[in-house]
C-alpha cells in the first residue's frame, strides 16, 4: 500500500500551551496516580511557510537543550502531526521552562503534553482530535500515563492501561490540601530510576500497596487526616532510595513527624501533601531545619545538597491551549 501523502500544516498560525508540572505516584500510586501542580511551563509554536527552525528558550535548560529537530517538543510535535496525517514546514518555538528537569516533577511529560496539544490545535478544524487522543499518544511516548494525565486534565488523575489503550479519570482533591515540594540540586533521570526496580514483588507487598492506593484516593478526595497511612508505598521508593539518599532521609524525618512525605515521581524531589496552610508552614520549617542540619554535618565533604522549597497549589484546570488566529 502506498503511504498516504501528509497534508501541510498552514503557516501563520500561533498556538500557546500552558501546562502544569505534575507529581506522579504520590506514594502507592506507582504508574497510576498523579497530581497537577500550579507550576507552569509555557510553549508557543508559530508555523511558517518557509523552512525556518528557530528557538527562543528561557528558564530551565535554556543553555543545555538542543536547538534543532532533536528538541523534545519539536520531535514530539512532528510525531503527533504525522499521526494526524500532517507535516509542518517552518517553525518558531518559544519555551518558558519553569519545571526543573530530572527532579521528579514531570518536566518531560509537560513538554510532551504541550507538543501533542499544540499539534492537535494546528491541524485543520475537521481533523482536531480530543484530549483522550492526546492522553493516548503522550502515554505511549512517556511509557506511563501518570504524569501526562494530570498535565492534560488537571487535578488528581487516576490512570490505567487496557492492552495498548491508556485511560484516565479525574477526581477533585479537597480544597485544603497544600502540596509542598523540596527540590534538591541533583538530578536523577526517570529512566535510571526505573532501571532500579525489580521485575516482580512479593504478593504481600502488592496486597498492602493496593490497600494504601485505595485509601489514598479517599484521603485526597474526602479525608486528609488519613494521608500519612495512605501514602505508604511498597512498590518503588525503597528500591530507589540508594540513588537519592538525602531525599530518603528527609522523607523519613518528615514522616516520623507525622507529615505525608513521598518521593515525587521517580525522584529526587520530596513531595509533602499537607492538610492545610498550618501544616504546610510546619513542613517548610521542618525542611529548613533538616537542610541546615544536614549542611552543617556535610561541611568538609565534597558535595552539600542545596534544596529549594516551594509551597504550591493543586492545578485544577490542566493544560490550557490558545490558538491564533482561530
Ligand atoms: N521543557 C523541555 N523541553 C525540552 N526537553 C525537556 C523539557 N523538559 C524535560 N526535557 C527533557 O526530559 C529530560 C528529563 O526527563 P526525566 O528524566 O523524565 O525527568 P522529569 O522527572 O523531569 O520528567 C530532560 O533532561 C530533557 O532532556
Ligand atoms: N511512575 C513513574 C513516574 C515518573 O515521574 P517523573 O516525574 O520522575 O518523570 C516512575 O515512578 O517511574
TrEMBL record:
Pfam families: GHMP_kinases_C, GHMP_kinases_N. It is found in: Cytoplasm. Residues 72-154 form the GHMP kinase N-terminal domain. Residues 225-290 form the GHMP kinase C-terminal domain. ATP binds at residues 100-110. Pathway: Amino-acid biosynthesis; L-threonine biosynthesis; L-threonine from L-aspartate: step 4/5. InterPro entries: GHMP_kinase_C_dom (IPR013750), GHMP_kinase_C_sf (IPR036554), GHMP_kinase_N_dom (IPR006204), Homoserine_kinase (IPR000870), Ribosomal_Su5_D2-typ_SF (IPR020568), Ribsml_uS5_D2-typ_fold_subgr (IPR014721). It catalyses: L-homoserine + ATP = O-phospho-L-homoserine + ADP + H(+). Its EC number is 2.7.1.39. Keywords: Amino-acid biosynthesis, ATP-binding, Cytoplasm, Kinase, Nucleotide-binding, Threonine biosynthesis, Transferase. GO terms for molecular function: homoserine kinase activity. The keyword ATP-binding applies. HAMAP family: Homoser_kinase (MF_00384). Belongs to the GHMP kinase family. Homoserine kinase subfamily. Catalyzes the ATP-dependent phosphorylation of L-homoserine to L-homoserine phosphate. This is Homoserine kinase. It comes from Sinomonas halotolerans.
Amino acid at each position: 500500500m502506498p503511504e498516504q501523502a501528509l497534508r501541510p500544516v498552514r503557516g501563520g498560525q500561533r498556538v500557546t500551551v500552558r501546562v502544569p508540572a505534575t507529581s506522579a505516584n504520590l506514594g502507592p500510586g506507582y504508574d497510576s496516580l498523579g497530581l497537577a501542580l500550579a507550576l507552569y511551563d509555557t510553549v508557543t509554536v508559530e508555523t511558517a511557510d518557509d523552512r525556518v527552525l528557530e528557538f527562543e528558550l528561557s528558564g530551565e535548560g535554556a543553555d543545555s537543550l538542543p536547538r534543532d529537530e532533536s528538541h523534545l517538543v519539536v520531535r514530539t510535535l512532528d510525531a503527533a502531526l504525522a499521526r494526524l496525517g500532517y507535516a509542518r514546514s517552518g517553525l518558531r518555538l518559544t519555551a518558558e521552562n519553569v519545571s526543573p528537569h530530572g527532579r521528579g516533577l514531570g518536566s518531560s511529560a509537560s513538554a510532551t503534553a504541550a507538543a501533542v496539544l499544540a499539534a492537535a490545535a494546528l491541524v485543520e478544524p475537521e481533523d482536531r482530535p480530543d484530549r483522550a487522543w492526546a492522553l493516548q499518544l503522550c502515554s505511549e511516548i512517556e511509557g506511563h500515563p501518570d504524569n501526562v494525565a494530570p498535565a492534560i486534565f488537571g487535578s488528581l488523575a487516576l490512570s490505567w492501561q487496557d492492552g495498548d489503550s491508556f485511560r484516565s479519570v479525574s477526581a477533585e482533591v479537597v480544597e485544603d490540601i497544600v502540596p509542598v515540594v523540596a527540590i534538591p540540586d541533583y538530578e536523577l533521570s526517570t529512566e535510571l530510576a526505573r532501571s532500579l526496580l525489580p521485575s516482580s514483588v512479593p504478593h504481600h507487598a502488592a496486597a498492602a500497596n493496593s490497600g494504601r492506593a485505595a485509601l489514598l484516593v479517599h484521603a485526597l478526595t474526602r479525608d486528609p487526616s488519613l494521608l500519612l497511612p495512605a501514602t505508604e508505598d511498597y512498590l518503588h521508593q525503597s528500591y530507589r532510595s540508594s540513588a537519592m539518599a538525602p531525599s530518603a532521609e528527609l522523607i523519613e524525618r518528615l514522616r516520623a513527624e507525622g507529615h505525608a512525605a513521598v518521593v515525587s515521581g521517580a525522584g529526587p524531589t520530596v513531595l509533602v501533601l499537607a492538610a492545610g496552610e498550618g501544616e504546610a508552614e510546619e513542613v517548610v520549617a521542618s525542611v529548613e531545619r533538616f537542610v541546615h542540619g544536614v549542611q552543617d554535618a556535610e561541611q568538609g565533604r565534597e558535595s552539600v545538597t542545596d534544596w529549594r522549597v516551594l509551597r504550591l497549589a493543586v492545578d485544577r484546570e490542566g493544560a490550557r491551549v490558545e490558538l491564533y488566529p482561530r
